Amino acid sequence: MVLDTISPMFAASDFWMAKWLTPFWFVGVGILLGLVVLSLFLALAFLLIVPTRGLEPARKSGTLHWVALALTVLLGIGIGGFLNSGDFRRAFFVKGEFATEEWLLVSVALTAMLGSMVWALLFCSSTRFFGELRALLFEGVGFAMLVTLGTVGAIGLAATPWVDDPRSVASSIPQMFAPSTRTLSFTLPGSTSPEGGKLQKLEVQYDPSTLGFTKIESNRRILIADASEVDQLRFAAVNIDADAPKVWERSMGPNKSPLPMVGGAEVFAQNEEIDDAEVTFTLVSYPPVPQAISILLVAAFVTVFGLLFFLMQSAAPKIAAIALSAAKSELSQPLPKILITIVGLAILLFVFLPFHTFGEDIKLLKDCGITLALIAAIFQGVWSASTSVSDEIEGRTALTLLSKPIHRRSFIIGKILGVFWILMFMFLVMGSFELFAVAYKPIVEARENSLDIPMWQQCHLEMFQTIPGLALAFMEAVILGSISVAIGTRVSMVANFAICFSIYVLGHLTPVIMESAAGGLPLVEFFSQLISAIVPNLNHFSMESAIDADVGVPWSVIASVFVYTTIYGIGATLLGLLLFEERDLA
Fold it and tell me: In this model, does residue 1 exceed pLDDT 60?
């Protein structure tokens, strides 16, 4: 009722601004939902302070870390079993075979995300954490990210009067977890006629706009049609052989559906054999607005990274102090603001800049925007690593810091996390510009080509196909930032930039180097394999192929890149610890 009052009868849904702002409304609502979940988590953690007071010695001794790790492993086993059962198992079948690698990668990624909730709940329920919470949220990078998320969420919520049917979107969210499944059975009498029995009407009621899965089974050969007479058919009839179920999913397209995919259509069936046919229809209806899943995905992103931010402060306060100090110091500099301004203005310019691609300018907008954000983030990451590590070592600031009860490994890990949160803040801002521009670009192209304004679903599709590219670019920047911190313990800023630039180039050329060296001189092949083993393969983080093909990035790919980033980030951290352990600071 509230949503209907805000947007009465959706009179503005035909306005071009409704097509543009509706996708951004999904993002804004998802962000606000994530912030609400984080608030509820903090309330729960606060209520658990007294019941978990006995865990305080375990927190200080480190025993609770092992307990949390054991719970995470058990959670991972449960997630793997859950994804290997029911309707989820079907999502990992490729050409009839179960894709074990994809199932494993998605399970690991989900375990890491949900495991963060377990860790955060165990460590954040303490009086010390809540005493530091105000400074965590309202100072430095925490406040910057909170303001960014709040601003984007407020803009999205302010677009509610232009949103097309927000009540249907809200009602679709619960249906994401419980799709409506119906099973209908019919008996078709046999016929001795050579032409088979008559086409009989079956009471099969369904909504083509929400139908997501169909399975038709019969013990006799039958014919499915949409009319009782051949000359009245609007769609081609479908033959279903005995004991050969006909299965259809929404991803196969409406043209391959055995049932007519138009509103008000009727279903008729004909038994082509002598014996009676037992026919079973299994229909699964999905939410009327499937795009509502994007609200949950955005909320999950905000929740997970918010919990990681809290967990850093509660589980490792010394590391958090170094990380937040480094991030706050970098935010006070003009460089992040300059880079964000340049990227934001460039992306807005790309919206109206003609690329002369015959109606495919949006592909170049996605590619150029993501690449520009990546370059700016890498530059900021290397700069931050140099100023917060190299300069502090040369200026003896690190010596003063390590004279306190802070270990060298805390210093390195804290600096890497400081760079991580700076990059996160930059991608939140630059990513918002990119998504805002991509959602508007279809409208611009329609006007330039004198076409009808596209539906909001098209703008939503283009915008949310861009999010995986931003996520991949962020993970690439994190890897290079981690490497920069590691080598920054030994080299100056200029050398750091040169090495990271070389790694960036070699990382994108690794497949080419391997292919050109295959079957050549043994020495050349050895060095090509050495480069591929040491230098990260940055082609894993590229979305250019998906953009060119106008397809989305599978979740299994994002999960595999997430695991790759985690492993390589740990390796870069260990390298930094090794280089810094024997470094003379005096």
Answer: no
